Amino acid sequence: MLSPDGKYFYLYFPDWIANGTLHATTTTNVSVARALAASVLSAAFGSTRPHTVAFEKFYEGSWHLQPGIGGASTDLNPTSAYRGYLDIHYNRALQRYVMIISDDTTFAYAESVDALNWTVPTQLGVFGPIAAYPTAVGFEDDPHILGNSYYVYFTHLPTDGTGWTNGKVRRLTLSCP
Length: 177
Fold this sequence. Notes:
Structural class: mainly beta
Strand order of the largest sheet: 9-5-6-7-8-10-11
Helix content: under 10%
Largest sheet: 7 strands, mixed
Number of strands: 11
C-alpha cells in the first residue's frame, strides 16, 4: 500500500522477529516495512535487469534502524486481541486507513490516520469454521480505495475433511456511517 505521502510502499505483516529473536513469543500483531515507491518501480520495470530493493522496518519510532530482512520491528497494535491475515486499504470516506484482520475464524477492524498508529481492533464477527484471507474491495474506479460501503471477500472452508473441494469465496458488506 502507498504511504500517506505517496512516496513509499508499505508492507504490513506479523513479524516473528519482533525484538531481534526468532521466538514465537515475540511475534507482533502487525509490523510494517517500507521502500521508496520510485525505487521499487524502477527496479521492477525501469531496468533491463529487474532486481530487488531493500525494505526497512519501523522500529521504536524510526525507519532507519532495522533492515527488512532480519531486523527488529515494533508492534503497531500490541494490545490487540486479534492477529493473523491482514488487509489494509485507504478509505476516502473516512479519510483514514482501515485494517481487516482474520485469525481464520473471527474478523476484526481497526483504523489509522497515519498508517502507523492504529485503534484497538473491534470484532466484526465470526465467519468460520475456517474463514481466511480477507480482501476489501471498494466500489470506486480504483477498487483499492474504499468508500462509504465496500465488500470484504474471504475464503470459507468447511471442516468436513474435504479441504478446498467444498470451499467457497464469500463476502460481507461493510458500511461507514
